[in-house]
Every structure is written in structure tokens, then in C-alpha cells.
Design a protein that fits this description.
alpha+beta; eleven-stranded antiparallel sheet; 5 helices; globular
């Protein structure tokens, strides 16, 4: 797997200014650190704030410089929306590297892990990270997408993701490697799931315990079956009403 990306559906958060956006971002990365301190650093281990080519990233913990970079970024944007992109560690992608993109006005939050299997990031560690976000933000749904070489691609370098090429329903939410459902999901509703992890506000449904591989038919089948079962119980919402 090249990248595992947890995609969160949030409630839109109106922010008064950069100070409010910075404080909310700090809450998120602090929650991630608390859930998996060996995988997710605190503020001084996240880097971002690049506003022009060749500029070095700054640690998120340098709040004066980082906020100044955010103000500069907003001034260069056609909108005045707060957005932040962070990585840990900084620099070229390495196994286990984290990337966070947060745009609260668009209800957008993603957390990506580069080459998780090579870094020894197991499924329960990822579930703990999802749980940390769910218990910090107002999350209505989340799932972990897998991005890798396309097993059906025309060229060896072609890439795709589970959600774009293998999800059961083109018009519904999907499960992928795992998904957060804001409901108490019981075994009878997802009998083939590898694990059901209860959270304070719902359940994380895990399709497979090993690293999800889109070239492995059994992994695709496992996720597809859970999607069908959850849809039968009205637990996967339609996201495209044209179908």
C-alpha cells in the first residue's frame, strides 16, 4: 500500500480568525498524539506553513511564525478560509510519515500514512487515531481509503484507490479498510467484520486486520460484503441522490 488515508466527514466549523483555527488544529494533533504517542508527535513534530517555492517548513509548535505563515497564506488565497496542511516528519516521504489536511469551512479533514505496513503501523493503531478524531470533532462518518498500484491498470505505474475502483456502491459511503459508523453496530449487522471497535459515539468497523491490499481479491471481497451488510441496515448513507 502506498498510502492509507482516513477521510472524515465533519460538521462545518465557522472560525472567527487564524487564532481559532490554530487552536482547533492543536486540539486535533494533541488528540492524535494522546491516542498513539509513538506514531503521532505533539506540535513540535508537525511541520507546514510553506507559502512559496523553496521555503522551509516550520514546526507547528512555533506558534508565532506558523500563524504568520497562515495569515500570509490566506492573504494569497481567493477566499479567506482557514486551511492547514501538516506533515510529520518534514521532508521526503518515508514509511510511516503522516500528513494532515484540515479545511474546517469545507468540513474536510484527512489523515494519511505513507507505506503503513513498512512502518509496522497496525490496524488497531489506525483505529485509535480515528477514535481520537471522532472524540474531538463532530464526525458523521469516516473511512480509511487505500491508494496503491492499480492491479487492473493499463500501465505498471497506474495507481488507484479502493473508493474509486472497488467500492460496492458508486452512490453510497464505503468502508474500505475500516469505517467509523455513528451508530452502535452489532455483530449481526456486520457478521463478516474482522473487528468492531466501540467508541463513545459509534463503532469502527474493521474489514481486515492485516494491511489492506487492493490487489488482494479477498480484501476487496471482505470490504464489499461489509458494505452490502451495512447498507441493508441503512448504515451507509447515499451520497449521490442521482442514482
Amino acid at each position: 500500500m502506498i498510502r492509507a488515508t482516513a477521510r472524515f466527514t465533519l460538521a462545518k466549523v465557522p472560525l472567527a480568525d487564524v487564532e481559532a483555527g490554530y487552536a482547533l488544529t492543536l486540539r486535533i494533533i494533541s488528540a492524535l498524539h494522546g491516542a498513539a504517542p509513538s506514531r503521532c508527535p505533539n506540535g513540535d513534530g508537525w511541520f507546514g506553513g510553506v507559502t512559496k517555492p523553496g521555503q522551509e517548513a516550520v514546526p507547528f509548535s512555533d506558534n508565532v511564525e506558523f500563524k504568520a505563515r497562515l495569515v500570509k497564506q490566506i492573504s494569497m488565497s481567493p477566499s479567506d478560509d482557514y486551511s492547514v496542511h501538516l506533515s510529520s516528519p518534514d521532508g521526503k516521504s518515508v514509511p510511516g510519515q503522516l500528513s494532515l489536511l484540515f479545511i474546517p469551512s469545507f468540513a474536510h479533514l484527512t489523515l494519511s500514512i505513507h507505506r503503513p505496513e513498512l512502518a509496522g503501523v497496525d490496524v488497531l493503531a489506525i483505529a485509535r487515531l480515528i477514535q481520537a478524531v471522532v472524540e474531538t470533532m463532530e464526525v458523521s462518518f469516516a473511512f480509511v481509503d487505500s491508494f496503491d498500484i492499480d492491479p487492473n491498470g493499463e500501465e505498471p505505474s497506474d495507481k488507484t484507490s479502493y473508493s474509486s475502483s472497488f467500492a460496492t456502491f458508486p452512490h453510497r459511503q464505503c468502508v474500505g479498510w475500516m469505517a467509523y459508523i455513528p451508530s452502535n453496530v452489532i455483530a449481526a449487522q456486520a457478521p463478516t467484520a474482522e473487528a468492531l471497535v466501540p467508541t463513545r459515539k459509534g463503532t469502527i468497523v474493521i474489514a481486515v486486520k492485516e494491511s489492506f491490499d487492493i490487489s488482494n481479491p479477498s480484501h476487496i471481497q471482505a470490504a464489499n460484503q461489509i458494505e452490502m451488510d451495512l447498507a441493508d441496515h441503512d448504515l451507509l448513507k447515499a451520497i449521490d441522490q442521482s442514482f
